[in-house]
Batch of 2 targets.
Target 1
Amino acid sequence: MDFSKISSFLESCDNVTILTHKAPDGDTLGAGFALCRYLRSAGKKANVLNSEELPERYSFLYSWYQPQQFEEQTVIAVDIADLKLLGSKLSAYAEEGRIDLCIDHHVSNKYFAKLTYVNASASAACQIIYELLSYMGAQLDKETATCLYTGIATDTGCFKFENTTAAAHIAAAELMKYHVEFASINRKMFDVKSRARMNIEQMVTNEMEYLFDGRCAVMTLTSDMIEKSGIEPAEFEGLASIPLQVEGVEMGITIKQRHEKVFKLSVRTAEKIDASAFCQKFGGGGHIRAAGCELNGTLEEVRKLVEDSAAELFEGENS
Amino acid sequence: MDFSKISSFLESCDNVTILTHKAPDGDTLGAGFALCRYLRSAGKKANVLNSEELPERYSFLYSWYQPQQFEEQTVIAVDIADLKLLGSKLSAYAEEGRIDLCIDHHVSNKYFAKLTYVNASASAACQIIYELLSYMGAQLDKETATCLYTGIATDTGCFKFENTTAAAHIAAAELMKYHVEFASINRKMFDVKSRARMNIEQMVTNEMEYLFDGRCAVMTLTSDMIEKSGIEPAEFEGLASIPLQVEGVEMGITIKQRHEKVFKLSVRTAEKIDASAFCQKFGGGGHIRAAGCELNGTLEEVRKLVEDSAAELFEGENS
């Protein structure tokens, strides 16, 4: 698949449903609404669907959006690597042959669509949509540019993370020309926290445990703390990266209670340690810098398991 | 002054002392060391001076640097708007006629040098040095690119703030090609905190007071808290922006104790409120989004003054 094929596909399609992934983020919504707005500007009918109610924090991406009435002819998935990510309300689209085109930047893409375009070196799905629309000579406007900028900014941590490419900066430079209110967007996306989020950050920082000369930090998040703080599920994003913000910490482990004796482990590492290998020992997995797994037992049992396993890593290197 | 004149100046100069501003940040050091490295690569002798010991957090900018012995012929100031910013150890350079060239991006530049190049719309002094070196066709390397990237990233809050320009993104895209370890730099510059900093953030968040339906947040930082936390002066950077991170807060006020009955006020505002006008009432000033002033009295007296003044602002608008 290349841009010339996708561009022919988009030119000939109509009555388009655009699917975005569950637990929606700035990239899937930015890509979905940017594509929708482009298709509508080309005289086609198009809607964006998500399995969940869209979080208020992204409402600036689609303030212009009203669903349209039409008989669906085309289905496009954006930023969706796996049919599982459609979520329960969109599960009907998981049937074979329902999705015509998938545009994605995840190396793990399962190629479930009839046509798939994956560029795993793109910083964001919005980066691909930006390059595709440029290739097609599409006329952008402030609303579309806002969607695309937001997707690139959120997926790269505002151009901070390893996945930021020169192309991402160039896209940002171009998109800014459409009067994107990037400073206000970035403040909203990266700086502003609810009081509930402030509360939970405080609680977990208070209780943070430092091990192995401060090279490993373990943070615990019990159901009780979650309830007390009043935090919403959408606000958990990025919480697991807090331990790694402490100077000297090379591995940050977050133990989050799911049920009475079920805990979700989120592991983040700074330079050398393989988070994925660590989690694989417990049947989990992920990336080298961010991985996860699920553990059963009491909090004490789970903490002991985790600390013993970390000890092998930190004490093992001296033996 | 334009690039052709500065470039002739740089080509003909030698034995260069480059001055950077006191309380050094990523931009002044990045610009200074990038310029130094360029001049040395062109066969000239050059040193970088600062009034203070350089903070450890910027050591990656100049790990290659050793001072050279020479009889000073040329003095260049970078990112210095005012001679006061030289600091006490460099005060000899504040005498008239000592500084040959000043390269800066502050609109408030006092034009104290024999030649001054100011571009107030540049995101950073490093942005100007980058464009100057490009204009001169200078060969960059990883070390120079690291200096320039860091200055642009730190002065724009990693491309987050209003002062980020399309040109800043384009410079970043170009500089990344020299294998700048930007993710690790950004982690160090923006994410990592000492435990002392973590402590103080926790203390001030615990004590934060919300006024006027949460539209104003007041944070107090007493000498006692500062001592207890173990925080170093260099680590205070950005602390005053914490109140504004809370959802709904439009004005964040930080009251920091300087002496028993002397307090420094730092005011940050989000959208509409003029921080500078607020501080002017107390004899201070600054920018529309960030300003400061000094107040005398007990903490209780200072708080009352501040709250009464804020009340005029928040309650006045309804009358």
Note: DSSP finds ten helices and eleven strands in chain A.
Target 2
Amino acid sequence: MLFLKKKQINAIEVAKQAGVSQSTVSRVFTPGASVSEKARRRVLETAKELGYRPNALARGLITNKTNIIGLVMREIQNPFYPEVLEKFTKGLRKRGYQVLFVYAEKDELQHDDISQFLEYNVEGVIVTDALLSSKVVSHFTENNIPVLLFNRYAKDFSGHVVCCDNYSAGKKIGEYLLENEHCQFAYIAGDTNTSTSRDRERGFREALYHEGIEPKVEVGNYTYEGGYQAALQLLKSDPQLDAIFCANDIMALGAVDAVKSLGLIIPKDISIMGVDDIVMASLPPYSLTTWQQPVDEMIEASINILLGEISGENEGPVSILLPGKLIERQSVSTFKK
Amino acid sequence: MLFLKKKQINAIEVAKQAGVSQSTVSRVFTPGASVSEKARRRVLETAKELGYRPNALARGLITNKTNIIGLVMREIQNPFYPEVLEKFTKGLRKRGYQVLFVYAEKDELQHDDISQFLEYNVEGVIVTDALLSSKVVSHFTENNIPVLLFNRYAKDFSGHVVCCDNYSAGKKIGEYLLENEHCQFAYIAGDTNTSTSRDRERGFREALYHEGIEPKVEVGNYTYEGGYQAALQLLKSDPQLDAIFCANDIMALGAVDAVKSLGLIIPKDISIMGVDDIVMASLPPYSLTTWQQPVDEMIEASINILLGEISGENEGPVSILLPGKLIERQSVSTFKK
């Protein structure tokens, strides 16, 4: 199974020609390693002469540092996630790390889904929009490979978590709708098994509970079609509804189109609100009032935490909840007092 | 710079305990390598007892086969590309390959953008929606690393190309609009530097030329806002326009909203058409007639060509142009004869 490639100049030859040790050569090409300026210059000149290309695999084996981060994504087609992928990749690249990308089919990752992260000696793992069983997590932690959950958390999860403060968002959304004199509320949940949806619902209910109000609830499965059908169902059983809070924008788009299909006018007859502030939320046919997740801050925090642990700085699992902000467009009626 | 991890059982210890050579152990864990059934069983049992985990880095160095494919994407947020990423990742995974993901900022990739592909000894490179200079391509071909352009091509490109037949699509779109009795045409180009946009325009012009018609052209830069502004500009200088063909759906969405903002009705007053069939094209406010790219076939062809060359089957650069198909919705007026 040997595949012959053009003979590569290796570190030994460079070391010989430059008159330094092989480990000096390795350090020159390892980001962050310390080496004297004189030796660095000599090695780089020699490497250039010989056409030497650093071999990250060899370096990874020798130093036990591959500079690879494993990134798992599930809902890559939900417009929230391509932005997340782009920003993680750029942010990690700036810090000298490569991304090994895995697409996960199910919400709970099994060992097989990410076994290659262990085989390729990734230095850290980021999981977006999915959960890991504690058995899978321990495969990594036993090997001192930090794991970070992005936009999700789970009880008994022993790794790091960076999330939007979804409970607080749900509560502020409830308060905002109450301030604007809505009385009959509904909530379209994403997936009742995920922390994001459950927390948004908890916060929303908490705000309404103070006014003695309980929302109707339907499940939309985080899809456009799910949001569409859920909205039709809600209006069928409760034509007096005047506000629907959807756990994400994709479902809110469906709810908007469902409501319009019934001949109702938004926001005059009914207000619709979402979460995420995806690009489509800003398009004129939707002009969705929504809750913007602090994506940039979440990504920066995730990278700092993960790389911090890799370099031995952290003392234990870190959980960060970041607030987002309200983006007011035209899908919620507001009363200027 | 040594990062201590839990001591890993290595192949030497497995070999010793199983009573075989180290290269036998390596072959047992190298997909496709040949080894006797008896030796395989003994090695696997021993590995399990000792808790041995194959090290893909070591295997990559020894066999010169890393099972990693480098994938570069630029427009990851254009909804066409998350679908492409998901399908490539799944398709390559089925064939035993991992994806090292790079996000590219500019349309023409420089050496720095993808130098890590060489450092990590990827076995092949897929570039979507961007170009490589021939200098960059030669870095790979000199090392027998095949390069494939997906959804783009360039003159003098020495690698493989898999593309939608954009010229033919543009021509069929022109013919379709002519059959449906449109007379005053405009084309909103994406980026006149890319093969996709140029070919769509060439085919479109070719169809209209036969009827002695020449379309007006504006540039929309493949963005919603670009499409919106381009449509306004076109209608300002030519209010008699009755058909606008947009080089992609994102711009077509902008054109639809711009046209509506002028109080015009689609398709009664003017027809709008796009390319890609992104999810948003099917939403009721747009209901866009569009040209669907044969994504599944393009991805399967790309994987087959790339892996074919990696295993030494291909004889030279392969170029494949695949036809797409018309998706009729409600943004183009049609005359039933």
Note: Residues 166-294 of chain A form a domain with the Rossmann fold fold (CATH 3.40.50.2300).
